[in-house]
Specification:
34% strand; alpha+beta; four-stranded antiparallel sheet; 130 residues
């Protein structure tokens, strides 16, 4: 817990940012649901990105980039003391070890605040068809 300049306490503490680059095949949707439902993680998001040579060997003409592919970047904020164990579970849950499974990274954050969802929030409908 830290305080503002006026002495008001701010909840939170040291945390880590876990970042996953995943194929655009529904893995990120399953991962986010698992994080929320099974791990209680509410500080996570996912965005579309263009990726080069992330999931497969590609060739390109000399001096040219290969064609980009759509990937998902999932970012998860976790309290520092829980981060190492969750990192290992995410590796398995997202199947990073499979061919083309993606990449997983973890970096320290000096401070992060908690985020709690109201109990009566409904799930978003799934828009992924894969």
């Amino acid at each position: 817990m830290t305080t503002t300049a006026t002495g008001v306490p701010v909840p939170g503490g040291a945390a880590k940012l876990i970042s996953c680059v995943l194929p655009d095949d529904g893995t990120e949707h399953r991962l986010l649901r698992w994080l929320r439902d099974q791990q209680g993680v509410t500080r996570a998001n996912s965005v579309y990105c263009r990726g080069h040579s992330i999931f497969k060997e590609v060739t390109a003409r000399r001096g040219k980039l290969p064609e980009p592919t759509l990937v998902r970047l999932v970012r998860i904020v976790v309290d520092a003391e829980q981060a190492d164990a969750l990192f290992d579970r995410i590796y398995e849950q997202a199947q990073i070890h499979r061919p083309g499974g993606g990449a997983l990274m973890m970096t320290p954050l000096l401070f992060a605040t908690p985020f709690a969802l109201p109990a009566d929030i409904a799930d978003e409908p799934s828009t992924h068809h894969g």
